[in-house]
């Protein structure tokens, strides 16, 4: 399971405990939250894990131990360099929670620290988020790109669930092919924002310049956050997290003005790639093709999680026992029904149940879904018709061009999408059965 990993558990914990996303409002009474944030930061910097842990809600305390709290600041300085200073605190409110944010300046990087306090002034969420440096702006659009496509807001409707979306349509002749972009695990927005990188937005713009439309949408777990289980009828699994809404998005895409309903594709990233065959099988609208971009592993969910932690903890000089402790902590945060569904997912059976043309792209510098995983994909699919599996040696998990193996810290820097990856995607959409 990957999500914007910064320092082993910190960022993941923030995603699991943050209240529902709504528009933040300035807090009318900021003195006390600021004082509590200052106290928490003091404990963090002094490695007083017991004191920081005592400030947390019971849910947070179950997810992170006092020892892990003590190690947080050391892990920050290991990755970001010597601590320089902390910027001023800013206080907003979200659904009754006080959110206190400030920037931590280190010699190598700047990191945003965000503390979420409940009504009892206990820490309900702790974030360490990348801050875009002045010289690391998101990739600018090529000259004249604003005249090559238009973007329109729309909504993916799935029963009572409404997911804000963006339809990116190339200018010129229609009808055109449309690619529905399906996210990886965790609460992703429609751009699949990871640090300063916006993989889905950038891919949508690049495809539009090649005459291909896209539909991207905010994920259910992003829109509803902690209410996801409630709005999903108390069930949390791959279908309620991703598949059901992707099927609804395909239905919408086929009805959009300017789209050729016979040329709708699904491109899934990470978990979305693993689920692409299930989405194709479930769609009422027959898909012209499906793409797996750094698709999730065929290995078991638990095996993959452990191997990712071994890599991350190894970068920090950790031990095998620390890997197992982190693994146990992460597993304990996930609902049992989700784990059961993840372990039961049968990719081979799902793929065999559809004859939709399939393109799989894998990065050689991806530590989350490795070339060993790719070899398993390749062996499983070698006899399947209209299926192409390609490793791009100089791509990471986000299909960005890189010459070195990715690390959690590398997601804090903007890198452009691989030109080769984009060309392969365009070629497949143009001719899926002869790729």
Q: How would you sum up this structure, described in words?
A:
38% of the residues lie in helices and 23% in strands. The longest helix has 18 residues, at 238-255. The radius of gyration is 22 Å and the shape is globular. It has helices at residues 10-17, 31-45, 49-54, 58-63, 66-80, 199-209, 220-223, 228-231, 238-255, 271-282, 301-315, 320-332, 336-344, 347-352, 371-381, 419-430; strands at residues 25-26, 83-86, 90-94, 97-106, 110-117, 123-130, 149-158, 161-170, 176-182, 193-194, 197-198, 213-217, 259-269, 289-293, 358-363, 387-392. The two termini are 30 Å apart. A hairpin with a 5-residue loop joins strand 5 and strand 6. The protein is an alpha/beta fold and 435 residues long. An eight-stranded mixed beta sheet has the order 7-8-12-9-13-14-15-16, sandwiched between helices. Strands 1, 2, 3, 4, 5 and 6 form a six-stranded antiparallel beta sheet that branches. Strands 10-11 form a two-stranded antiparallel ribbon. The protein contains 16 helices and 16 strands. Mean pLDDT is 84; it is low at 1-29 and 133-145. The protein folds into two domains: 10-130, Nuclear Transport Factor 2, Chain: A, CATH 3.10.450; 147-434, Alpha/Beta hydrolase fold, catalytic domain (Rossmann fold).
């Amino acid at each position: 399971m990957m999500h914007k990993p910064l320092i082993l558990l910190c960022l993941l914990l923030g995603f699991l405990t943050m209240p529902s996303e709504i528009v933040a409002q300035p807090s009318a009474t900021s003195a006390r939250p600021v004082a509590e944030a200052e106290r928490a930061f003091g404990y963090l910097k002094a490695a007083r894990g017991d004191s920081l842990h005592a400030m947390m809600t019971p849910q947070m305390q179950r997810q992170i131990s006092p020892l892990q709290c003590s190690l947080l600041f050391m892990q920050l300085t290991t990755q970001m360099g010597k601590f320089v200073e902390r910027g001023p605190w800013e206080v907003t409110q979200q659904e009754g929670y006080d959110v206190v944010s400030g920037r931590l300046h280190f010699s190598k990087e700047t990191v945003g620290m965000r503390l979420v306090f409940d009504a009892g002034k206990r820490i309900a969420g702790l974030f360490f988020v990348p801050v875009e440096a002045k010289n690391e702006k998101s990739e600018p659009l090529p000259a004249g790109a604003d005249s090559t496509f238009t973007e329109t807001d729309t909504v993916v409707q799935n029963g009572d669930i409404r997911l804000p979306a963006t339809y990116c349509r190339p200018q010129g002749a229609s009808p055109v092919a449309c690619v529905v972009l399906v996210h990886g695990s965790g609460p992703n927005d429609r751009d699949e924002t990871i640090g300063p990188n916006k993989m889905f937005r950038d891919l949508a713009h690049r495809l539009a310049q090649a005459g291909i439309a896209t539909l991207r949408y905010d994920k259910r777990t992003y829109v509803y956050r902690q209410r996801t289980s409630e709005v999903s009828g108390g069930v949390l699994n791959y279908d309620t997290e991703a598949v059901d809404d992707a099927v609804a998005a395909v239905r919408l895409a086929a009805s959009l003005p300017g789209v050729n309903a016979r040329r709708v594709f699904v491109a899934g990233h990470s978990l979305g790639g693993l689920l692409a065959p299930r989405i194709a099988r479930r769609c009422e609208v027959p898909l012209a093709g499906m793409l797996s971009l750094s698709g999730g592993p065929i290995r078991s969910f638990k095996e993959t999680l452990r191997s990712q932690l071994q890599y991350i903890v190894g970068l920090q000089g950790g031990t095998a026992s620390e890997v197992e402790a982190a693994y146990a902590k992460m597993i304990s945060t996930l609902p049992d029904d989700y784990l059961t569904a993840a372990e039961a997912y049968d990719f081979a059976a799902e793929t065999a149940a559809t004859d939709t043309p399939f393109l799989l792209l894998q990065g050689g510098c991806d530590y989350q879904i490795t070339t060993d995983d790719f070899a398993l994909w390749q062996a499983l699919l070698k006899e399947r018709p209209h299926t192409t599996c390609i490793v791009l040696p100089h791509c990471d998990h986000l299909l960005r061009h890189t010459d070195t193996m990715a690390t959690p810290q590398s997601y804090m820097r903007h890198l452009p999408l691989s030109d080769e990856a984009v060309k392969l995607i365009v070629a497949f959409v143009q001719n899926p059965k002869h790729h």
